[in-house]
Amino acid sequence: MSNVKRAAIVAGGIATAAAAVVVAGAAIAAARASARSAKLTLEATFDHQVTGITVTPDGRRFANFPRWTEDAPMSVAELLPSGKLKAYPDEEWNAWRNSKAARMSVDKHFACVQSVVADAHGALWVVDAAAPGNEKILPGGPKLVRIDLATNQVSKVIAFDEKVALQGTYLNDLRVSPDGRTGYITDSGSRGAIIVVDLEAGTAFRALDGHPSTQPERDVQVTTDGKPLVRPDGRGPMFASDGLALSNDGATLYYQALTGKTLYAVPTAKLNPGTSPSEVGAAVKKLGTTTVADGLWMSKDGTLYLTSPTDNAVKRWNGTELETVVEDDRLRWPDTMSEGPDGTLFVTASHIQDTAWFKPSAPIAVKTALFSFKPA
Fold first, then answer.
1. Strands 85-87 vs 113-118: parallel, antiparallel or unpaired
2. Which pairing describes strands 252-257 and 262-267: parallel, antiparallel, or unpaired?
3. Which helix (H) or strand (E) holds 298?
4. In whole angstroms, what is the distance from residue 185 CA to residue 135 CA?
5. Each residue of 213-266: pLDDT tens digit?
């Protein structure tokens, strides 16, 4: 056999092997993508915009529906085992309508609920941003409502005055300390901050108010479906501190601006009225670069999860970078997460990119969903 022919055979073998590697690699990638998608389970679908989900220690599930592009018929609901929604705690607290705003008391009704969180002490906490359309705050409306899960009755209303909920504030997510005494709420509005609430005394103050870590990152552009997400007038999402998570011992608060890709942490011991703003700011740590994220969740096993609207995914922070846990085209704008008693994670798909804000031809009420998955 000539050297030329032998070389040709060898070259052909190498090419065939290389092609086999490419095909095998593609197959492995497809299998991994399929496996990620297969992990996601549809729990419920909704006819209206959903954002928050929370699961109680005994497995009850609650969701909320803010008034963004529609006058939602229900603000807070329990998702029953049958799949039906039941107004919670009752019809009256959910009776607010934009069309009746001039005739209803905003302090005793849900006006624009952004999140719901069940604590470990028998309470469901409801964050009412009271800013329908994500616009101006209704005077006297911003509040944190405690509902006793044993009696299904409102047991406390903590109202936020104009020193805490500024005009332009949008109360977003909430985390409750393990002892049930302190709440932390992100302000994702025009001036980002962490609002610290004494849940027993009913008082609150703004921490990291205007600090760089709670502000939108001006060089970050939110993208979905492979292109920048913008309104018809050219505006893109510009949201400050949004998702947050609390370490299981309550010592560290993690947070990030939605319009941002930087994960921060601050010791909760610094978040008290007696600590100067400069001292609190100096205690903030930049943990690393992530992705545009809406919701954060600290699992019972100490894993920090982030939702990723850009690629319809949920990721986990391994200490230095993100790892994809589940990715599925059905997860259009993964929003809020919660954990069930058995470690199952629940996540809402709020379809923000499909709303009339960004698609003028979209219906006023957008269909949304709730999914679950069990992390590997």
1. unpaired
2. antiparallel
3. strand 296-298
4. 18
5. 999 999 999 999 999 999 999 999 999 999 999 999 999 999 999 999 999 999
Hey, what are 285's tokens? 């740590």
For position 5, what pLDDT does the model report? 42
Residue in 258, 341, 342 with CA at minimum distance from that of residue 293: 258
Q: How far apart are CA 59 and CA 339, in angstroms?
A: 9
Q: Please tell me the distance from the alpha carbon of residue 306 to that of residue 120, in angstroms, as a whole number.
A: 22
Identity of the amino acid at 316: R
Residues 136, 185, 369, 108, Cα dihedral to 10°: -60
Give the tens place of pLDDT for each residue, 266-323.
999 999 999 999 999 999 999 999 999 999 999 999 999 999 999 999 999 999 999 9
Distance CA 98, CA 111 (A): 8
Which residue blocks in 207-363 are alpha helix, DSSP H? 277-283
The pTM (predicted TM-score) of the whole model is 0.90
Question: Which fold, 42-373?
Answer: Neuraminidase (2.120.10)
Q: How far is it between the farthest Cα atoms of the chain?
A: 97
